[in-house]
Amino acid sequence: MEFPDLGAHCTEPSCKRLDFLPLKCDACEQLFCTDHIAYAHHNCTSAYKKDVQVPVCPLCSTPIPVKRGEMPDIVVGAHIDQDCKSDPAQRKRKVRDQSSFCCIWKGATRIQFGNWIPGGVN
Question: Does the model's pTM come out above 0.85?
């Protein structure tokens, strides 16, 4: 006995199996059998809407929030340069701050390529 009105065919082009309990993909909203319901198994074009991953700072292991459309690498880099609480990041900021705002020799003058000459240039 056949029940042609029961269930639905899997929308995966390579499958088309008649499934009596088809599953609806929560991203693309198409019907699939149990073998093809995973995003990767049916090459879901809307998986990015549901499969969201939060990047983690490699230095301090803090999750870094990324807004839609932003590149995670750039946001994590900005976090390391500004907000990261790890020792390497803080040392890097400290060295950069000291070298850009102070002069070792009193009265020194900066010449080409950032070299310093004690007492200035005559």
Answer: no
